[in-house]
Description:
The protein is of the alpha+beta class. It has 2 domains: 27-232, Jelly Rolls (Sandwich); 300-382 and 400-642, Cytosolic phospholipase A2 catalytic domain, CATH 3.40.1090.10. Helices cover 27% and strands 24% of the residues. It contains 16 helices and 32 strands. Strands 21, 22, 23, 26, 27, 28, 29, 30, 31 and 32 form a 10-stranded mixed β-sheet that branches. Strands 1, 3, 10, 11, 12, 16, 17 and 20 form an 8-stranded mixed β-sheet that branches. An 8-stranded antiparallel β-sheet has the order 9-8-7-4-13-2-19-18, with no helix packed on it. α3 runs antiparallel to α5 and α9 packs antiparallel against α10. It is elongated and about 85 Å long. InterPro entries: Acyl_Trfase/lysoPLipase, ConA-like_dom_sf, LamG-like, PNPLA_dom. Residues 303-509 form the PNPLA domain. It comes from Anabaena sp. UHCC-0399. Residues 240-268 are annotated as: Disordered.
Amino acid sequence: MVKDNEQNQSEAAVALQPNQFTPSGLVFDGKDIYIDLGKKAEFKIAQQITLEAWINCQAQRRRTGIITNVFDTGQIESGYGLLLDGKSGIFFALKTPSKGIQYLSSKENSIQLNHWHHIAGTYDGKRMRVYVDGVEKATKATADSNIDYNPENDLVIGIYQDNNESYPFQGKIAEVRIWNKARSEAEIQADMTHILVGNEPGLVGYWPLSDAPGTIIIQDKTNHANHGNIIDKTVGVKTEISRENQQPTPPQSESQEVIPKTTQPPTSMLEQTQVIIPETPKATKTKQESTKNKTSKYPYKILSIDGGGIRGIIPAMILEEIETRTQKPIASLFDLIAGTSTGGIIALGLTKPQLNATKKPSYTAKDLVNIFAEHGNVIFYEPLYAELLGEFDEILKPKYTSEGRNDILTQYFGSTTIVEAITEILIPSYDIEQRVPVLFSSNLNKENNTSRKLRKIGEGFTMKEAAMATSAAPTYFAPYRIPTSHNENGFYTLVDGGVFANNPTGLAVIESIIGAKEAIKKGEEPWTLDNTLVVSLGTGSLTKPYPYQEAKNWGLLGWARPMLNIVLDGVNQAISSQIEELIPQSEDKSQQQYYRLQAYLDESLEAMDNAKFNNIRMLIQVAKQMIAERTEEIDELCNKLVN
């Protein structure tokens, strides 16, 4: 009988859905806009609670807020809320005094992107339950009854935020309701497709989110009149965080009401003073006069992209700017593209061909910003228990599993092989068992799979494998194994190429020299360093000092993470300086051949795994600032690239 009842309830919920009730709701841009309801007595519900809303989600991101006053730094926790779980479901979150905050998930694939779903979470003082479209999806018992509100956080719609994190919602939200009782499945089903009056027993907050366009006040339809203010954190400043979703959004038939801008003071981290100093090559320290009428032609053009984890946003946005100004894909502008770690992922993405269109790339540079801005929190996903253990957990094993990284790179690259790249690519990694650098190359003429000094491989390997290998940063991710017949043990066991070439410009320049020699042998027109154009993009030069008084007492554990940062940054700067001396420049600097686009980062932005919303915002601002400050130089570069 229990099974029959559950089946009947599910069928009833399905019968109630979407066609007979289509919410209009408000549109949230996934960037800067949300609704602040403040701190009100009615929101501090002691025990029994029900949260409800209709959502049409366009992008999944773990902990993205729908309706929440959760405060969770790992050490300090409080509140309740409905949030996205990052795995095609939702969280019902709750903090009680004797336990840490509980995140009860509706389970993977319980909601679909670009579809309306009714969601609800209930708590009766003993048990949490979460519902999707009127059907219970998960439940769990709790240790005690009261909800903990210390510290008390503002109740917000369309974002999760505490003192150092914020995750905004992208999509539409409607019919937000809070009750001071635990509603049953039958009660949820009975009301979820109806507009409420506002005086229903137990209803303490009701925001239909169907107010007229142009309003900045969101009406609470209950007698409590706890109206909300629409907050725009940038106050008219365009800030692109969430890029276009990979899934196309179906045409919208219902009316959409877009949340307008407000004129209140900004509250974002952008108010904080950030010192971002451009790192400029010698040849560009003085303002250059335009060279549009005296541009030399360069028979060989190199693009090199540094490693740097989430900071890959910076070179990706610079490349987006180059594509915008030239109106050409990056792959068509260069003869060789080299990239390490996060730069390798970008290089591979820029050269992956469309199906049935071998010379057209699958992705623009703008698309690749998505890997970091939208999926960074999946790549650098750390379970809650690991966050609580902190550095102790990292001593025992890599900080992150490779599962999220593998999923995202599979999504972007599939089974495309390296040799299919539409422009020659060079992707460094290092085999820790063979103890040899391994370069993934799309040029089969350079294949060398037996050397004890340096391997060049490509045939039989995929772009996804190269991306996983070059980004397997020690201490962050486990080494990546690829089956092969090249080695006796049957594998390449690879780690991040940044351990020897985080700035791969030197490798790329040497490859060009080798290529020129091969051209001579074939009777083709060769090139030299005198007419090679080199563009090198950094992910931010690091400035955090390691004081002697601290470092002198470090042992193996103390040096582990600082050593990696020092090695990566040291390689970047040394190679940059040497290439600057190697590539010829004219006396008046008008015929610049080497472009190094890099900035010194404030130490708060140095972490290569910080995928939090505010950090991504700031990295985007770094890129925008550098583009603005060096716009004439970028114009000159673009002119050389298209000639």
